[in-house]
Amino acid sequence: MKMVFIRHGTTHLNQQGIFCGESVDPPLSVDGATELRSLVSDHPYPGVDRVFSSPSLRCRMTAQIIYPQHSLTIIDNLREMAFGEYDGKLSTDVHQTPHWQLREQQGELFTMPGGESYRQVSQRMISAIEEILQEANGCSQIAVVTHSLAIMWLFKSTLTVPLTRTESFCPNGMGYLTELNPHDWTNNHKIIYLGPLPEGAKRPDMSQSPYMGKK
Question: What secondary structure does DSSP assign to 141-201, as a single string?
């Protein structure tokens, strides 16, 4: 089965570099929706049999723009990471806190204060894939619209070959084409990376992200 993973389009909070986890639910900004429609018009995503989405409004809006012909199946476990005390705060302010400096040292065990750890997000996303596979029995290609950290930490624990730092940066409205064997998923939790999407679209450089300031 091929799985198309897509990060939601841009919101006004994304444009400002504000942490936007599961407790903050903005829509796509006017500019974000316009940019996404233009992207899809110039570089259509591949066709799919089913579309699965995070419950977040920004993900549902993104799915409806990219795949307007499909109804959505909402999977709660596809929601964004719970940022806890960081939710709604500027990333430049968060990056200067002493707790944030523990991130690289602790790796997947790093926990947002009052929120989730990276490991919890990874495990939750693995559960989401299990739910999706049960729903998508018989499908050959599906789309999953979710969030950047949710995709990143799922990939860190499941890809057969790790992505580079540049490849792991997923701009708003863009995504990845992957493949997995539904019959083996329960035993090995392995996903094969096939390439970036939409095909032929120029991906913004990581340095252009408002979240990529001081770490």
Answer: EEEEEE-HHHHHHHHHHHBSSPPPHHHH---TT-EEEEE--TTTHHHH--BEEEEEESTTP
